[in-house]
Each structure stands twice: as C-alpha cells, then as structure tokens.
C-alpha cells in the first residue's frame, strides 16, 4: 500500500513527520503494509525546480493508493506563469477528488466553543468561486481595467449531483439528515441549479431528512445550535468558510481532519494553513493531519473491505481523543505544554501500548 507524501510549506514538514510516525506505529500494530514515497512540492520545489509542483508529481500521486498533503503557503507563491501552482486546486481538479470531507465534533474533556455536536461538512471541491478550477483554459478572474476585477463562478449539475449523492450516502451511515446550504435568494441560477440537483438526488434516499439553509443564516445557526446538524452539503466557497467555523467551534481548527476523495483515490489534507510564523519551532499541533490520515485509512477500509485499516483508523482516533481529554497531554494551542514532537511521541506510545 503506497502513499505519496507531499509535506508542503511552513509547519508542513513537522506535522507530516508526526503523521508518518503515527502511521508507522499503526502499520506495525495492524499490519497495514504501508510504504511512503516523498515528493517535494511548494516553496522548496519552487527554489529548486522553478515550480511549486514539479513534473511527475501528479502522475506519481495518481498511481498511488493514497496521498498525504501537508499545508501549503499558496498566498506566498508567485503567479502561475512564474511557477506558483496552487497545489490544492490542481490535486483536486486534475485527480478529480471532488468530495472535500470535513468532520467537526466536540470531544470529552476538551472545552468547546459551542454546544456538543458531531457533524460533517461535504464540500464540492472542483468548481465554484475558485478562479483556478472552473475554466477549460485560463483563470476565471480578470481585470478589464486597472480599477475593476471580475470573477466568474461555475456550478454544474454533474458536480452538484455527485457531492449530494456522497452526502446522502454518508447520512445513511450516520443520523440520516442532510442540510443543503445555498444563497439562492441572490444567486438564483447557480445556487438554484445546485439545489435542484441536490433535491433530485434526495429522491433516491427517502429515509434521509432534508432541509436547507441560506449560508449567512447557517453561520449563525452553527453558533447557536450546532447539535441540530448531521451532514451539511454545500458548494465549494460556502463549505470552505462554514467548515472552518464548525471546526473552531468544536475546539480548534488544529483538530480539523479533512480528506479530498474521488471515486478511486483519496488525499488526506490538513484543513488549516501553513502557519509560517511558528514553523520550525516545535509548536505546531499535528492533530489535523494525523486525523486526516486516519480518515484516509477509513476510506481505504471501506473501498477495499480491509478491516485492519478500519481498526487502525479507530485506534488513531481513540488515542487522539484520550490525549486531548487531559490538559497535560495537549499541545500549547489547546492549553497544554507539549510540543509537536512530544505530542507525537505520546500518540505513538498509545498506539504501541
């Protein structure tokens, strides 16, 4: 089972090293047969190769059994014609990893900033208000004059239907409720098409309750009553914002696991950014990428019917939960005193026990 590993920028190398250590411990305990193939990307690749995504990396990722992608400093990259490729966008679109799955839940013993809840935000990841992923050629953002900037938004029936179908399939395994997020009162055509496609899919899942919410109202509702929600299905831009809110309400964005999944391939990617101000200081919380890797194991377990992968994922989640329940075994951002390496050693020891 070969994983292509792209550590990324900022704290990427630190939390990727932590994640690989945890996966190695899980591999030893559950006999997963994991192999890791590292691929240099990001600012280091730009300095060495003149591009943030060197030739051959995508092909290696496409041929792998799974991908681990650390955070990237896309805002610090030069323009695309100067080598600054948005790696997240390219990975999602070129490998057709259309379902960005972002769970958020509270944990026993860890103070939350909202109520007690357990939800998953299903984010369509290949189109929407993102200029690098909705045109056949070129970017969907341009300036007709120096004082005017325009952005085009793409919403397609195909992309809307498939993220909706993945949402309803997930809801069938959970509490059987899907909430559709939109702004159709303003974006009548684009969000209207998204809603129409989702409701068409909902007909195939009569056991699942469906409701909807306007995106700005949903931000308030998540703060007020997050426990009411199960699976939240949304277009790219709306889900990107709401998922960060939900993760912070659960305790911290540093706990936000995330995968980008297609029909045949899955990528584990931390939900947060590269945090360059603390890079190299042993301060980064590695939980987000570790939990993302556990989600990757779960995806493989389901796709291939591998019970040991499911057991490994559960063990990682349980060990993380146990560590977060006690202040003395948390990282500093959560009120603890452990650095990245010490926290990782604690998780590894828990898996080996």
Describe the structure.
It is built from eleven helices and twelve strands. The two termini are 24 Å apart. It folds into two domains: 1-100 and 263-353, Isopropylmalate Dehydrogenase (3-Layer(aba) Sandwich), CATH 3.40.718; 112-250, Isopropylmalate Dehydrogenase. The strands form two sheets. It has a ten-stranded mixed beta sheet, sandwiched between helices. 47% of the residues are buried. The chain is 41% helix and 17% strand. With 353 residues, the chain is of the alpha/beta class.
Secondary structure topology:
Blueprint (H helix, E strand, L loop, with lengths): L1 E5 L5 H19 L4 E4 L3 H8 L7 H6 L3 E4 L17 H8 L4 E7 L12 E7 L16 E5 L2 E4 L5 H17 L3 E6 L7 H13 L6 E6 H10 L6 E4 L1 H15 L8 E3 L4 E4 L17 H18 L2 H18 L15 H13 L1
Parallel strand pairs: 1-2, 1-3, 3-12, 5-10, 8-9, 8-10
Antiparallel strand pairs: 4-5, 4-11, 6-7, 11-12
Number of domains: 2
Radius of gyration: 20 Å
End-to-end separation:
24 Å
How many E-type strands?
12
Please describe the biggest sheet, giving its number of strands, its sense, and whether it closes into a barrel: 10 strands, mixed
Mean of all residue-level pLDDT scores: 95
In CATH terms, what is the fold-level topology of the largest domain?
A: Isopropylmalate Dehydrogenase
Number of helices, where a helix is a run of at least 4 consecutive DSSP H or I residues: 11
Instruction: Give the overall shape, derived from the CA principal axes.
Output: globular
Low-confidence stretches: none
Helicity range: 40-55%
Order of helices and strands: EHEHHEHEEEEHEHEHEHEEHHH
Strand order of the largest sheet: 2-1-3-12-11-4-5-10-8-9
CATH superfamily of the largest domain: Isopropylmalate Dehydrogenase
Oligomer: single chain
CATH hierarchy class name of the largest domain: Alpha Beta
Determine the strand fraction and express it as a percent band: 15-25%
Summing up helix and strand content along with how strands pair, one would put the structural category as alpha/beta
CATH-derived architecture of the largest domain: 3-Layer(aba) Sandwich
